[in-house]
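#struct-pred
JK: can someone run the complex with protoporphyrin IX containing FE? inputs below
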Amino acid sequence: MTSATNSSIDGQQCPRHEDLVEDRLVLWYFVAALTFMTISMLAGILMGLQLLRHNPLPAIEVLSPGRWRMVHTNAIAYGFLANAFLGIMHWVIPRLTLRPVLSNPLSYLIFFAWQAVVLATAVGILFGQAQGVEWGETPVWIDPFALLGLLLVAINFGAPIINAPGPLYVTLWYYLAALVWTFLTYAMGNLLPEYFVCGSSAGAVGGLFIHDLVGLFVTPLGWGMMYYFVPILLKRPMWSHGLSLVGFWGLAFFYPLQGIHHFLYTPIPMFLQYGAVLSTIALEFVVLTVIVNFVGTLYGTGDLVLRNLPLRYFYTGILFYFLTCLQCALQVTLTFQALIHFTDWVVGHAHMVMFGVFSLWQLGVMTYLVPRILKTEWYNPKWCEWHYWASSGGLLVMASDLILGGLFQGWSWAALQPWDASIHLSIPFWSVRLVAGLVMFAAQILFVVNFYLTWRKSTRSFSVTVPATGAAPAFGQ
Ligand code: HEM
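RT: done, structure tokens with the ligand placed:
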């Protein structure tokens, strides 16, 4: 992948990939991502303990569980997932466009500004400044900075994509769309319900926001990343370019319409609820085309998944994606919603998609890239294997446990049992969730230690290699 030789396109000499990519920044983003993941998981463990009536930090308002819960979700979305995606985009976009990002100093500015925004959000939430919008808890005064940051990210990455020669590869379609959608989605969720709409209209916008954060920010960046790394690791093109396009346009068309499926049976008008159900069903088919495409690409080389760890991460994520969508096909129906709404079924679903799919993909990419960037083998490749098994095994236990627990909670409520009865029956499920969470947490700590020791043994020294402005390196010189 990191070929050092110059090839040529249309008679022009191509820049070396190493000269286009700011490797050091990719690693820094990974470090930031893993730091926030550790914070988020600690918060999840605290929350899990609280539900078992063992709050380790009692009577400290700033550290109360309700606030930790928001730190858990915010640090995972904006601290872990976003940081990892930004690092990976720094690796992928210059390679696919043959151009560096618009400005290297701007990249560094964005890096530090983004960490400041995520940290300030966590501190603001702990000090009671959270806003009352799910996933939009970011304190009011941070929103403008976050939006400015997203705009700068879009400009910095958008410039090389727009100036790229030739037709765009699918990854760049997804990336370009995500750059625009993420800015718009964040603005919608953090401005409209707070300042412009209220009541059930604000609820409808909130529903769109939480789903679009997954569908228009995390999903296109995740699939874009997969369209780049899977063919490289398998050393073969995607099975069907046509299906890739169906997946992209299907996502663009159906995803924004379905957020209200989070709020079925609420005062939001029924025609909107029915519309959300229908577009979710439509998206199920679209997602299926994407999964079929990736399975088709693997066809005939399945044994590689057993031997190649990053590939195993990718296809485990695709399997969890399939399971999440299967679950979604059930839970989007009004009949099923009546049973599982407000139960741990939904929490199981959230963990399966956020960790089982997108986090596993990102951890797979990190497992692949870290030795390439540091130009040395992993300090302990066996630990990488343990990391995989404990992460994916822990998640499987956690998600199945919560999904099953959710069904029992729903049945208990449907039988009109006292509330206490459903709490009582949940305790074994919440205990298993905690144990699975501790296993997942231990796996990430092992990965962090392995990463640190690998960096320490690496002899690579980093120097800034990318031109300070976004001008394409002189082709043909
Ligand atoms: C140490 C492992 C983890 C533990 C113990 C844990 C625990 C929890 C707990 C207790 C909640 C609150 C559930 C409730 O309010 O009833 C929660 C929510 C959530 N967690 Fe985790 N978590 C862990 C890891 C993760 C990871 C790695 C991710 C994402 C990559 C994640 C994503 C979420 C999301 C999205 C929610 C919100 C669910 C919803 O509102 O439906 N968690 N987690």
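RT: quick notes.
The longest strand covers residues 8-9.
The mean pLDDT is 92.
JK: thanks, will look after standup
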